[in-house]
């Protein structure tokens, strides 16, 4: 599992944000470890948890960025909205077709998280 530490390229330097990012990697591990055959409904529960946590985290992050007038906040919010929409798409897909592949979700989530943290969050929080 990806673990964020102060020397990690995923470290923003903002404690609450780094700990919330770490929770995303915990949820990602749950998705990767999910055994569909043993618990077909379990993935839906994990994606629901991911969806709620995503909304919570994005609200926290956006309030902090607004408080400090971080540059390109609107662009940042649009990226968050696109991610939230994608997770909602997965939630709806799982409701109608519970055979969705955990690999697809985990690859997308891990790629998006690493890219977003490294290329957007770190730059945004550097200005604070």
TrEMBL record:
The keyword Iron applies. It comes from the Bacteria. Residues 12-121 form the Hemerythrin-like domain. GO terms for molecular function: metal ion binding. It comes from Maridesulfovibrio hydrothermalis AM13 = DSM 14728. Keywords: Iron, Metal-binding. This is Hemerythrin-like metal-binding protein. It holds the Pfam family Hemerythrin. NCBIfam families: bact_hemeryth, hemeryth_dom. Belongs to the hemerythrin family.
């Amino acid at each position: 599992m990806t673990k964020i530490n102060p020397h990690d390229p995923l470290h923003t330097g903002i404690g609450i944000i780094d700990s919330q990012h770490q929770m995303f990697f915990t949820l990602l591990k749950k998705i990767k470890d999910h055994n569909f055959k043993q618990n077909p409904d379990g993935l839906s529960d994990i994606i629901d948890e991911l969806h709620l946590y995503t909304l919570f985290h994005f609200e926290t992050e956006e309030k902090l960025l607004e408080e400090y007038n971080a540059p390109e906040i609107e662009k940042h919010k649009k990226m968050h909205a696109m991610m939230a929409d994608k997770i909602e798409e997965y939630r709806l897909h799982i409701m109608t077709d519970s055979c969705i592949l955990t690999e697809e979700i985990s690859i997308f989530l891990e790629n998006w998280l690493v890219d977003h943290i490294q290329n957007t969050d770190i730059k945004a929080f550097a200005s604070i």
